[in-house]
């Protein structure tokens, strides 16, 4: 099956977006003292770590980074088969903190809803915010991101893939299209 | 569906009747997710919504504490509704057949039925007749797959891997459903299994029937009647409960003799590898198959087995509920 792939961001552009998001988080929250970053598995985790590193570079403070697997909070549990869950690790106390959820792609918003439910089981943050590298639209829930790397208008049959050095060995964002309609009719 | 979620679908079982139908990937999938479940057990709020709206019915025709309670706890932590039916307080007492009881439970829209029954094959019968998914929580002398999964998990957690490890199972292999399920589970995961017990309690027919098949996982299973020899280089020692009725049935001359020949004590434990794990599915006859100081000693992971039981069953319930074929 032919898969058409189009690169829309290179490593430098991704780095710039993350730098900007890091500054925006600091600006919006009057510094990083009360902020906890929570990365969503898989690619939200290295993104959150990079943002934390950037903030440390700018301000000299270490913003704690948590990891979150939303497997047990999904609302489509019997539709997609059993996922392999990764460890969840939320820094000890999030009560009264500003929790910034970090994910790679914002799409329907369902994962974010699950993430908000999951985080609520660990405590009561004073605020939750959302940062994503790509917002591709097609929301199915009233959810929006506070920090966006790039808005990418897409069609539903397209797929946006964020690839990161830590997981995929290279930094890039690509749009893939399943080219089923062209030929290949067997 | 993205390519990624497709490749992660590595649990392929509708029912859990025994581990003979499991692939090593199925087993690994359940064990891997058990870690995430253990994390839930350590939280302040021990509740996740994974099985919200699903109904799990436990149907126990035999007495049990740890298995039934751990299934109930596992299902409740995952937010399923749990209904417990025991044979003593139900219409079974009035003579209702297993089939009719099961139909009644299915009519109550049970998504998963957990059954324990004194007759081997009862869970398989239900799985054939009902739309609900069925978990075998122990059937006669046949199988007890969830006990085996929690044993596998306990071994992997303590010594890192199962593959290549020497596991000695001691005692009443013939009548032990735990031993039978563990035979499947351990051999599928690549362990070296040694069965040790008196000849009268070794199921030679069962083993030989399988061992003649080329490449069968049981082909490499060793049988040893001398415990001291069997324990050499053992990584894991599993003592089995000796049913006290066995002596009456003529399988053993006396409990005292059994205990002297096959009881696990400090001298014997020293023959195994340093730090070898001591396991027992419970309930124990301390002083018969295992000495008290060993059962509660430093190398014992018996309590841990019970604790892992909840997380393993959570993982299993989750994998089954996440399967696409909950409704047919």
The CATH topology of the largest domain in chain B corresponds to: Rossmann fold
How far is the N terminus from the C terminus of chain B?
21 Å
Count of individual beta strands of chain A: 8
Number of domains of chain B: 2
In terms of structural class, how would the helical and strand content of chain B be classed?
A: alpha/beta
Overall strand count of chain B: 9
Tell me the layout of helices and strands.
The complex is a heterodimer of chains A (186) and B (328).
Chain A: E1 3-9, H1 11-28, E2 35-40, H2 44-59, E3 65-68, E4 98-106, H3 110-120, E5 127-135, E6 147-151, E7 158-163, H4 165-168, E8 172-178
Parallel strand pairs in A: 2-3, 2-4, 4-5, 5-6
Antiparallel strand pairs in A: 1-8, 7-8
Chain B: H1 3-7, H2 24-41, E1 55-60, H3 66-77, E2 81-86, H4 98-107, E3 112-117, H5 122-129, E4 133-139, H6 145-159, E5 166-170, H7 177-188, E6 192-196, H8 204-211, E7 222-224, H9 227-231, E8 236-239, H10 245-248, H11 255-262, H12 266-269, E9 277-279, H13 292-295, H14 302-322
Parallel strand pairs in B: 1-2, 1-3, 3-4, 5-6, 5-8, 6-7, 8-9
Helix pairs in contact in B: 2-6, 2-14, 3-14, 6-7, 6-14
